[in-house]
Amino acid sequence: MPRSGSSRSSARGRRVARGFLGVVLAGVIVAGIGVVTALRRSLPRLNGEVAVEGLQAGVRIERDALGVPTLTAASRLDASFALGWLHAQDRFFQMDLLRRSAAGELSALVGPAARALDRSVRVHRFRARAQRVAAAMPRAEHLAAYARGVNAGLASLGARPCEYWLLRTRPEPWLPEDIVLCVFAMYLDLQSADGDFESALGVVHDVLPSALAAFVAANGTTWDAPLVGPAFETPAIPGPDVVDLRRATRMGASIDADSGEEVEAHGSNNWAMSGAHTADGSALLAGDMHLGLAVPNIWYRASIVYPAGNGTRRVTGITLPGAPAIIAGSNGDVAWAFTNSEVDVSDLVLLEFEDAERTRVSTPDGPRGLDRHAEIIAVHGAPDDTLIVVESIWGPVIDTDHRGRTRVLRWIAHDLAAVDLGLLEMEEAASVDEAVEIANRTRIPTQNCVIVDRAGRIAWTLMGPLPRRFGAAGRLPCSWADGTNGWDGVRDANEVPRIVDPPSGRIWTANNRSVDGEWLGRIGDGGYALGARAQQIRDALGVLERATPNDFLQLQLDDRALFLAPWQQLMRETLELAPEGRFDAEFRRQVKAWGGRAAVESVGYRAVREFRSAVVAEAIGPLLGPCRAADTRVQDWQLRQREGAVWRLLQERPLHLLDARFDSWDDLLAAALDSTVVRLRRWGPALTQRTWGELNTTRIRHPLSRAIPVAGRWLDMPRTALPGDRDMPRVQSPTAGASQRMVVSPGREDRGFFHMPGGQSGHPWSRFYRNGHADWEEGRPTPFLPGPVQHTLHLEPKS
User: Fold this and answer.
1) Do residues 399 and 423 touch, judged by C-beta distance below 8 A?
2) Going by fewer Cβ within 10 Å, which terminus of the chain is more open, N or C?
């Protein structure tokens, strides 16, 4: 029987569809082959010989099984070139993101999604500042050599890095000023770009009675563990004549305690012991910098060998892709490590206007106009955006406060003295004394620098610029119009605090306050971390004698919950007061047998942690309610030392500072317990399945993985439940933690350890993309020095 027209149409439609699908499939295959080919061609060179322009002599690059390179050069300048070449081969896209993030130029690469971020950063005009800094920098020949090396390394790839294929764009050449921009990116990461801590303190002191402000915004607590001086006591509780919550309907909108802080766990640790207290008589150094975690990791390992004096210098440690120096490590004579210092390096200055149009402001030298700069923001796939940046003599206008006063930011990062190449000098230091002098004149985001040397000596000091203030201490926003307040440049090296060869033979820092008295007055408080983590490290070091590198590694992995132990006791007592059937017996048992660690399997740890957050919200939130009502930007966690106030309230239980919703402090604790259960049950009804590991599961992602359906996960590190938290040495959260761990003794580097999340290469097809990550997760000791040579490449000058 002949087919009907509709049947013929259907058959023809199926043939067309099959043909179309065949074409599409062929296109996909061709495109896939093209992508695979491009990926392969863009892999870093590992072996052979490459002729490049810009070298003075040949450089040998040997890689071990993890891809860690050893560069052997005829000069440090050639080593800078070769390091730039390597960084470009393995990490160019990461470097590009770093310089663009500081310059406010991400939109030109990724499109409109980054426009708001670019606008917030352009206020600082870091591109223009970087140009001025680079032009005036000593040892600028290293900037030029490194930049030449980056561009040569990029050109030596068989194809542009794969990220640029996905973004349909091409990489821009590397400029010497881009090195400065990468350091500015670290300023943005490590210091406040908007003065949020000082702003919050300003609101607290403006809105609350002075006694209450002193109580909730104290300078420290009994958890303090400074290197010099005692812990600070929490001020006395203000009386009912100052504030009485029982007579107020509400003091204003309360604050969700720890909002924004519960998710992340930032911080860093370092410590040292002199040779008198170690097993082999050598000084021992540990350092682990805690930062946001991503793929690839922020740091890149390297060992650099070059002639020095009558011999050879070998410097091993971590580098920042985008800069030519070893950031932290050991040179055989001296080893050094950093933690963020949290000292006060910025001020909020209140402008006083001379005219109704608000175009001229009062200054010590008379009325001055405000400068306006048009910042053109290129946007990939969209029209350019224009931002008008308004600047005073003290810095850019950033916002208005809760009283409508215009504020500018005076930030050390804006100074010509913000960045230099002093770390190149640190590579050459021969003793603690030399290293301390170098540290005090080096310009990076100001860090706690702990130093040890081959002779068994140890030291602490600050590396990075410090403002020399006059007038106001800089803790609160104020006017500089009449000349009584301000900065008189940057402190000289001899004004920077330093501790050399302490009698205890031990040094430790963990973003906490390290000094007191006159020294503290010089460096200020930029928002020191609660001292609990530092105290745990200090106490562990105090009982440690004949220390070994493994002892230090175990301390880096210490997840004991000493800070939460009093909260666990309080939660147990509150559970005992609860009606018998209110919480199931197994949940009570889990809290009681919590284990005292931030262990992945612990339900009790997670419950205690949630309970603390709920109690803090109920206890201190109402006191800060007027601050939140005045300025919604104020958050409870910005008051870093509030723990002392909360515990004083819980111990003394003043009725006049109890929210009127509760009849007693026991009622407040019971409500916090109920809130804890509600928060835990958001994850599922079975409380006994709410482990710490369920929440603390890593999300270490490539910047573009979210944009690639399904295949994007291939770019990320595996999701793994890990122990640790923010108030213990093993700092860990889903997206932040130890960006590196090292333990090293100068001259005995072969006995040291090193860990790093992710791998050396940023190329997803590289054998070095993930290897080493599992060791970091599990805390397995791996060598500080590069291992046996697996690959050898020679860079030769092009004739």
Assistant:
1) no
2) N
